Automatic annotation (TrEMBL), chain A:
Protein name (database record): Hydrogenase 4 subunit B
All copies of domain NADH:quinone oxidoreductase/Mrp antiporter transmembrane, residue ranges: 131-420
Transmembrane intervals: 6-24, 36-60, 80-103, 110-129, 135-154, 166-189, 209-231, 243-263, 275-298, 310-330, 336-361, 382-400, 429-453, 474-498, 536-557, 656-674
Lineage: Bacteria, Pseudomonadati, Pseudomonadota, Alphaproteobacteria, Rhodospirillales
Alphabetically ordered keywords of this record: Cell membrane, Membrane, Oxidoreductase, Transmembrane, Transmembrane helix
Species assigned in the record: Azospirillum melinis
Record-linked NCBIfam families: PRK06521.1
Automatic annotation (TrEMBL), chain B:
Residue ranges crossing the lipid bilayer per the database entry: 66-89, 101-120, 140-161, 173-191, 226-247, 254-275, 295-311
InterPro entries: ComplexI_Subunit1, NADH_UbQ_OxRdtase_su1/FPO, NADH_UbQ_OxRdtase_su1_CS
Domain of life: Bacteria
Keywords of this entry: Membrane, Transmembrane, Transmembrane helix
Membrane topology, from the record: Multi-pass membrane protein
Keyword Lipoprotein among record annotations: no
Lineage summary: Bacteria, Pseudomonadati, Pseudomonadota, Alphaproteobacteria, Rhodospirillales
Species, as recorded: Azospirillum melinis
Cleavable signal peptide: none
Subcellular localization, as worded in the UniProt entry: Membrane
Main location per the UniProt record: membrane
Protein name according to UniProt: Hydrogenase 3 membrane subunit
One Pfam short name: NADHdh
Length: 675, 312
């Protein structure tokens, strides 16, 4: 019961923090200190809950009977929920540390409200993953969407409100579909408890319908293409530490939902249809990963660029999850565990490095007051710690060994390879194509992050602000440092982490664990297939680096001192600030070579704009109908009352004697009636 | 399992390749000179160049940061580590946990990352364009490399480069046609990766003043020149180790290794001589037309994949 009590402690602390933030709303300095303090405590308790739940291995259940039979309040902490809670807590811990300094940016604009919604957002995310009843799941899911909606529209400008509206639309459209899926299952099970869903599996065609509904619903939340359209607008609009939480954690709830429905609730009893589900997830994953990064490359707004990378990484996670589902459908437990484990590992890794990158972007925005990369440049000199952290994040998200992004992508490749090796013909065809998509994604991601880091932090300052930027406050650097260290640790300590992920995956699927590491070597279940050792790569990289350093120093005495030249060579012309590579020019070859994909985005965006326009038309129509009712019903009555009043005014002349005459007349009339 | 002697072998082959790399680039220069009916600077000219550059002053542009200064060391280091994982003298990979096809592709991405980043960091427009092109070529080539190696790996049942090479050497692959086509498409991808004409894009001498190398000088330039020669050698060794492993040692015996070394050297010289002839008989492809060329590679790799699926 330790995990549950820690979870409840964390939730109570979050509630307390939320109330505190509202009570102190006029004393912003106190909110900064108190809100962050309580938030950090809640996050630490949550982290404890998550880790102990993973360690326990067995699900822990809290069953509190509610007043209504359908709203049976059940919390269940299985290893998967434990992983999610640990990820949520880790990121919220860092967000609170970072936010301590960062919310100064929002001084006087409702820091209390921001603290309230952050607390509500974090608590509802934890409750979503722990809830074991469809009714409460949906309630908390809605709470999560609402709290994050208010964070998106925090800036209150046109862009934020527009983005918020689109987000609101997609989030609720998604939850309607999820609701429909749960109703199908509840109809069969006769209860809204997930335990009942597991006990009464849906018959053959209905389970595919339920899965499809849930997949689209949760896919909209996860931001997979083509339901991603809200994501690159909503995430950049929110404050950076909230963006880190949204991109790092909230969209993972979508993936969690797909795993929950596809594997936990329906997967165990699903028939051959499950192969189709797995291939569907795989296909959506492959498309999302490539298109996400292609669109990211064309962005100049650093937060939009990062948001598109979230779409990409959701795609990579779905590749793993899809392979896991294929493994379940083919009754190959090793493949199933390998695929799901790769997806979950990437889920954790992406949360860490995307959180880091959003915080890094937040730090530069904090100093620069712009999101446009073209205005930055040369920040590595003025903000060295931010630059270093961002570089670690950029290398990790580009899947550069030996950092964490590489490890999970390596497992994804290995899962795809294993699927291609002994799958059905369709799987044999699909898995290598997915692997090629992943390779294309990897190459594009490297390009994108060379561009992001290079344009922001390298070269000459591109604006006056960039020249005068200062390092971010200590709390913000500390927040980034925690995540940068986590990126390195999750990569180098992969031989310890991979088996844990494997156990979580195995427990979720319900099979025996698979050997994923021996000593310092990682292997995908079978050492013959492949091996990898990130600690060894790190050691060799460090050891080999002595050679070039020694070569350089050995001849140092023979040559004159190093010096800086006046300017880079510009073919004899005077170099000016228009000459170096810019965000636009650097990605220009890709925009040229992949032009059809960008055209496609415009047409998809047009479709969505069409939907949004449709909604606007409805609103306008409502606005036009409302006065109509006014004119035809309310206005005539009001007019009649008015007119009769005017008419009555005639008898009210204001002369005292006439009023006396009225009284006498009335008396006579009454007497006459009485007689 | 990785043993100490494997590690030593890996180290030995990395250092051997490092020592031989200027010789290989010198060979390319000699082939070019012969085709121009010139006398040529001699096989050892690149050693002399490097030695001289190491004693020259190191100049850096005014706005460059640590990415610019780190790059030569990072690049040389990375390529050396890759060299430890590729089967060259032996059938098996000396350091197996590096000799995985995915790991090797992504380790090259590490070198590429810093190489291109230094281009932006130098502040020169030529370097920036060179960096952008280097990454674009990576985008066009990496999928081809992965697919062709993936097909070979599926035929061998392992993604370890040594295991694939052994399976090919022993004839334990189910589809000979698929293997040959995969080898051809991989060779094409490798050729593009070499950065030689007609695909001399990122370090184009006449067009971009050697791209990201523009602003380097002295010892930094020496390290980069050396690293690039080493990279070209390693890339070719990668192809040889996987698709032409004939003659390499299957055990750790001294004579086996010696014989493997001789076979490897002969293969390397032949391939670089052939590359030299091709390089000097074509003109540069226009950069905006490169996707049309890389599609040929994609097509060939896909063909290999189809042959694998059909099982011919």
């Amino acid at each position: 019961m330790i995990p549950l009590s820690l979870l409840i402690m964390s939730l109570l602390l979050s509630c307390g923090g939320a109330i505190l933030c509202l009570l102190l709303k006029h004393r912003e300095e106190d909110i900064r200190l108190g809100g962050s303090g309580v938030g950090i405590a809640a996050a630490l308790a949550g982290l404890g809950a998550g880790l102990t739940a993973i360690g326990a291995g067995q699900p822990v259940v809290l069953d509190a009977a509610g007043p209504y039979p359908f709203a049976h309040f059940v919390l269940r902490l299985d290893p998967l929920a434990g992983l999610m809670i640990a990820v949520i807590s880790l990121l919220s811990l860092v967000a609170w540390i970072y936010g301590f300094a960062y919310v100064r940016e929002y001084a006087g604009r409702g820091v209390g409200a921001m603290g309230f919604f952050m607390n509500a957002f974090i608590a509802s995310m934890m409750l979503v993953v722990a809830a074991d009843n469809a009714f409460w799941f949906l309630i908390f899911f809605e709470m999560m969407s609402l709290a994050s909606y208010f964070l998106v529209i925090f800036d209150q400008d046109d862009e934020a409100v527009g983005a918020g509206f689109l987000y609101f639309l997609v989030a609720h459209g998604g939850s309607v579909l999820i609701m429909a899926a749960f109703f199908l299952m509840a109809n069969r099970a006769g209860s809204f408890d997930f335990a009942a869903f597991r006990a009464h599996p849906l018959p053959a065609p209905l389970d595919s319908v339920a899965f499809l509904l849930a997949f689209i619903g949760f896919g909209a939340k996860a931001g997979m293409i083509p339901l991603h359209i809200w994501l690159p607008r909503a995430h950049p609009a929110a404050p950076s530490h909230a963006s880190a939480l949204m991109s790092g954690v909230m969209i993972k709830i979508g993936v969690f939902g797909i795993v929950k429905v596809g594997i936990d609730l329906l997967g165990a009893s699903a028939g051959p249809a499950m192969l189709g589900w797995g291939l569907l997830v795989l296909a959506f994953g492959a498309v999302s990963s490539v298109l996400g990064v292609v669109y990211a490359l064309a962005e100049h707004d650093i937060k939009k660029l990062l948001a598109y990378h979230s779409v990409e990484n959701i795609g990579i996670i779905l590749l793993g999850v899809g392979t896991g589902m294929i493994g379940m459908a083919l009754h190959q437990p090793v493949l199933a565990v390998l695929g799901l484990m790769a997806g979950l590992y990437h889920l954790l890794n992406h949360a860490v490095f995307k959180g880091l990158l959003f915080l890094g972007a937040g730090s530069t925005i904090f100093r620069m007051h712009t999101k446009d990369m073209e205005e930055m440049g040369g920040l590595a000199r003025t903000m060295p710690w931010t630059a270093l952290s961002f570089l670690v994040g950029a290398l990790a998200i580009s899947a550069i060994p030996p950092l964490n992004g590489f490890v999970s992508e390596w497992y994804t490749y290995q899962a795809l390879f294993a699927a291609a090796l002994d799958g059905t013909p369709l799987v044999k065809f699909a898995a290598p194509i997915a692997a090629v998509m992943l390779a294309l994604t990897g190459a594009l991601a490297v390009m994108c992050f060379v561009k992001a880091y290079g344009i922001m932090f390298a070269g000459a300052p591109r604006s006056h602000h960039a020249e005068e930027a200062r390092e971010a406050p200590a709390a913000m650097v500390a927040g980034m440092a925690v995540l940068a260290v986590a990126c390195v640790a999750l990569g180098l300590l992969a031989p310890l982490m991979a088996p844990v992920m494997g156990r979580i995956a195995a427990a979720t699927i319900g099979t025996a664990p698979v050997t994923l590491a021996v000593g310092t070597t990682l292997l995908p279940g079978d050492a013959q297939q492949a091996t990898l050792s990130t600690p060894l790569i790190a050691i060799l990289l460090i050891a080999m680096a002595f050679l070039p350093i020694a070569l350089k120093t050995a001849f140092a005495a023979k040559r004159g001192g190093d010096r800086k030249v006046a300017a880079p060579w510009a073919a004899g012309y005077l170099p000016d600030h228009h000459m170096p590579a810019s965000a636009g020019s650097f990605a220009q070859p890709i925009r040229m070579f992949f032009a059809p994909l960008y055209t496609m985005r415009r047409s998809i965006a047009g479709r969505w704009t069409g939907i949004a326009l449709g909604f606007e038309r409805v609103v306008t129509l409502a606005r036009r109908t409302e006065p109509l009712a006014d004119r035809s019903i309310v206005a005539p009555i009001a007019g009649a009352v008015d007119a009769s009043g005017k008419w009555l005014q005639i008898i009210q002349a204001g002369d005292f004697r006439i009023y006396c005459l009225y009284i006498v007349a009335a008396l006579i009339a009454l007497l006459a009636l009485a007689v | 399992m990785l043993t100490f002697s494997h590690l030593i072998l890996g180290l030995f082959q990395a250092l051997l390749l490092l020592a031989a790399a200027p010789l290989v680039s010198g060979l390319s220069r000699m082939v070019r000179a012969k085709l121009h009916t010139r006398h040529g600077p001699g096989l050892l000219q690149d050693y002399r160049d490097i030695a001289k550059l190491l004693t020259r002053q190191d100049l850096t542009p005014p706005n460059s940061g640590f990415a610019f200064r780190l790059m030569p060391a990072v690049m040389l280091t990375t390529v050396l580590v890759i060299a430890m994982g590729i089967p060259m003298l032996t059938r098996f990979t000396p350091v197996a946990p590096i000799g995985d096809l995915i790991t090797v592709i992504y380790l090259f991405a590490l070198a590429r990352f810093f190489f291109s980043l230094s281009g932006i960091d130098s502040g020169s427009s030529f370097s920036g364009i060179g960096g952008s092109r280097e990454l674009t070529m990576g985008v066009l080539v990496e999928p081809v490399m992965l697919l062709s190696l993936f097909v070979a790996a599926l035929l061998a049942g392992s993604t370890n480069l040594g295991a694939i090479g052994s399976a090919i050497a022993d004839g334990h692959v189910r589809s000979a046609t698929a293997t040959v086509i995969a080898a051809l498409s991989f060779a094409y991808a490798i050729y593009i990766e070499l950065g030689k004409l007609p695909y001399d894009m990122a370090e184009a001498e006449q067009e971009l003043q050697e791209g990201p190398l523009t602003e380097y000088s002295g010892p930094s330039l020496a390290l980069i020149k050396w690293a690039m020669a080493l990279k070209q050698t390693v890339v070719v060794a990668w192809f040889v180790g996987v698709f032409l492993p004939f003659g390499s040692a299957s055990g750790m015996s001294f004579f086996g290794l010696l014989f493997g070394l001789i076979a490897f050297a002969i293969k390397l010289v032949l391939i670089f001589a052939a590359v030299g002839v091709v390089e000097n008989s074509v003109a540069r492809v226009r950069f905006r037309l490169t996707p049309q060329h890389s599609w040929v590679g994609v097509g060939a790799a896909s063909l290999a994949f189809v042959f694998y699926l059909v099982g011919l």
